[in-house]
Amino acid sequence: MSTSNAKNPAIRKFIDVQKALKGASYPAAKKDLLNTAKQNGADEEAMEALAALPEEEYANPAQVSKAVGNED
User: Fold this and answer.
1) How far apart are CA 4 and CA 46, in angstroms?
2) Residue pLDDT, tens place only, 29-57
């Protein structure tokens, strides 16, 4: 049985969201994060995860990651 993180959907989503936000400027509003992700060619799952975030300003990538992790 494999315990690789790459097979864990939550970990994969977390990584995809961080890749999608490469180059983002913080603090950033949700709409800014969505725009950055779109410009970076984010996949549908990453875009959905960002779209599900609360409408607030995010101070740094860690805050975004925490919010993405709490959406489930």
Assistant:
1) 20
2) 999 999 999 999 999 999 999 999 999 99
